[in-house]
Amino acid sequence: MKLTRSYALELLQCISNEISAIPDLEIAKKGVDLAFFNAIEHGIIEIVIEIIKANPSFLACQYDFQKSTIHAAVRFRQEKVFNLIYAAGKWKYLMISGYDEYNNNILHLAAMLAPPNRLAHISGAALQMQKEIQWYKEVESIVDPSYKLDLNHDGEKPSELFTNSHKQLMEEAEKWTKGIAHSSTVVGALIITIMFTAAFTVHTQDSGYPIFLHKKAFKVFITADAVSLFAASTSVLTFLGVLTSRYAEEDFLKSLPRKLIIGLSTLFFSIAGMMIAFCATLIIMLDGDLKLIIPTVLLASVPVAVFIFLQFPLLVDIFISIYGPGMFDRKMEYLFEKDPSFA
Question: Where is the signal peptide (predicted)?
Fold first, then answer.
């Protein structure tokens, strides 16, 4: 695969050398513009960069209903191509301006629902909705405020078009989020009941003094029980907050994902604490019989491993979507730093 990629880059370099020699009037006849916009649609950033380096006028090139490179990048949700706007220098404002055949400006394009293939690789309808809002907010931050008041042929402002085109995704995102919150609330409530009961069922003397108070395993049990109980309580309260949320568009940007992070994280700690408390109790009861203790501890780790396998990837995705580096990079000048035409 590395060898194939190497050959492809060499071929691309040869093609870009030929493109640089083609007059602007001959570009459409040679089909270069079609290849260029196909590369944008599929997010093949290497081809886009090489063609732009060969002929910077491609930044303002038009093809079919797309106004320019950045308009196509927004419509097809190709963030790597979109990031080129920050490295385009004097071409930046020329690329942003303009309307398509339906009088949609670039903010209208950001308000449209992303192509299905771009949403498919995002886990969960709530994260898909978050990604769409991030796109809209990012484009909104680089355009003139007057763009937000423009009307297309259907008489819709960008914000109105966003709401109308994302109605179904909003419903799916709300249903998806409530499903996770409801299921997790049930699990958390069960853990609270179990751990609260377990804390007061330890063996005691007639005086009420715990028999195993001086054993290390008993101290581990009490600590793990308390951690599990408090974590489960926090998780349930957090997910109750998710269930009672108003589910507005803005909530999917940060508020709901943050609540999901807190809820899932504390639920994980509560499950882990419950298993530790269970193992500590068995150690006390079996009085150090390793033949029974070791297999039991290994079995107790299965629920924790299952939770990590099923929910941890989702937790990581949510965390990255909020606190990660983000999909928009405003420091891509290095792509054209050796080309004076982009100064």
Answer: none
Going from the C-alpha of 262 to that of each of 111, 182, 194, 258, the distances in angstroms are 30, 15, 21, 6
**329 lies in some domain:** no
Is 328 inside a domain boundary?
A: no
- The total number of structural domains that make up the chain: 2
CA separation, residue 237 to residues 157, 178, 199, 224, 232 (Å): 38, 14, 21, 20, 9
Within 287-335, residue ranges assigned H as helices are 290-323
Q: What is the DSSP letter of 333?
A: G
Q: Find where tokens 């995002």 sit.
A: 122
- Please list, in sequence order, all residues whose beta carbon lies within 8 angstroms of the beta carbon of residue 12, skipping any fewer than 6 positions away: 46, 47, 50
Structural domain of 217: 171-323
| Whether residues 262 and 188 fall in one domain | yes
pLDDT digits (tens, 9 = 90+) for 98-109: 777 888 888 999
pTM of this structure: 0.83
